[in-house]
Amino acid sequence: MNAKPAIESHLSSAESRPFSHVETWVFDLDNTLYPHTSRVWPQIDQRITLYITELFGLDGLSAQALQKYFYHKYGTTLKALIDEYEIDPHDFLDFAHDIDHTDIELNHSLGEAIERLPGRKLILTNGSRKHAENVARKIGILDHFEDVFDIAASNFVPKPDRRAYEIFLERHGVEPSRSAMFEDIAKNLTVPHELGMTTTLIVPKTLDPFRESFEQEAVKTPDIDYITNDLADFLRAYALPAKSKS
To answer: In this prediction, what percent of the chain has a pLDDT beyond 90?
Structure first.
């Protein structure tokens, strides 16, 4: 599939795993539980660039180029800065997530769908707990989640590193074969699927100009059971038990 969001609202593979057995529902945060129109990620991206600008004394363009280099080589800029420069990760996260939440809208439809999912609900993010809680609270869904597993909880090992998922599963006592993972970046679903989780890729309804095209691809691979551009509607259509859809 080309680098465009899915034309249909929901897509599923011929061998997609069902949701009927799922007891634990795991959601990524950024660009998964809110649309790009919330303007969350562009602000974080700008804050990371500013951090690099100040840390290395670079101009904006050079800092942005270095940031992208770090991202592609290490998976996250934070991982690069910890490994190569031994920065304080907590200071970095506080700085990067110091954003305006004005454009994040309350999403009653998503909240209702998540609340009605049978079993446990958890957030698994490469961001910080504080950031996840602030955003989820603004969306109106925080109270539906048992806990947030953030980058600090994984010892600053980011997705898609297998160790991040293994630490998460052990910490929360999650059985992957009875779990589902929702994520906006295709490569972050490879390990969850290998571990036995039912996987769903979230793509934007319209292309996000602030993210790279590969991060928005409606990728059809064996690691992805479902693709959707409307999470709330997808949960109602595919994940809720029949008796809960009425």
So the answer is: 83
